[in-house]
């Protein structure tokens, strides 16, 4: 592949904008709690769109481009499940009413996609300028994998991100949600509503996720067009997926371990690629098709093992993991509640490795 034409970029970005606009005016024009049927329909729709785009890419650009896209999309989709854990924690900590959640998710995902586009551009430039970029990305992924394993019992601190702290410092925070608006007037003064804080919390935490997910996709393709497409179509379906499997997340007790293995696998792939291209051709590369097969195998085994573990130990709950340990009370280590109220269930044991 020698890159994609301007027309291909315009078509992909146009499709993303159309889908976002469609989501905005059709899915969330009326604030309401999302039911299982609605979430299922939207989830299937976005999977069909993502697969359809991949098949079109396969037909137009060839099997290599198609395989790399599907591998990148699967990687992003699997890593995004960890995002759903964090979304659940954020909604619980800020006590977000059910009818406002999908609107906040939609704008948070749009913000995250814009940030990721910037990161992808920086990553692509770094790869073209510095031969050691693949080595750096691989080491970052291996470090992230080890940190997730070490701190798999932790929940990230979603209320203390830099953006949330700055918003609290600049303007007073109101008490109510005011119909889902970000700004409102209380007692004659303009205030920030919790909606804005939740939006910033989602955007800033996804920024941290992007630091490992984007290098992970660069591990299966060095083509920026495919990296952006995989990110976009994985993120666009995230809103519906949250409402579809939200109640099942806490049952995936081995998810963090599975994601750590995926990150480690792609980290090794990137390091082998660097050694093969810059040191000696005798170092083998890990083919994209094999990477995709191993990733799918890890996801299947992780899911089955989690189901069996929870069936035997129903008191156990999953955590999204954290890249560093923070000072918390025992209650902060509780699993995120699924009813959208602050607090959580009693602390639970994590399954052994």
Automatic annotation (TrEMBL):
The chain crosses the membrane at residues 6-27, 39-58, 70-92, 104-123, 129-149, 191-210, 225-245, 252-276, 288-308. Pfam families: TerC. GO terms for cellular component: membrane. It comes from the Bacteria. Its main location: membrane. Residues 319-353 are annotated as: Disordered. Belongs to the TerC family. PANTHER family: MEMBRANE BOUND PREDICTED REDOX MODULATOR, THYLAKOID MEMBRANE PROTEIN TERC, CHLOROPLASTIC. This is Tellurite resistance protein TerC. It comes from Thermomonospora echinospora.
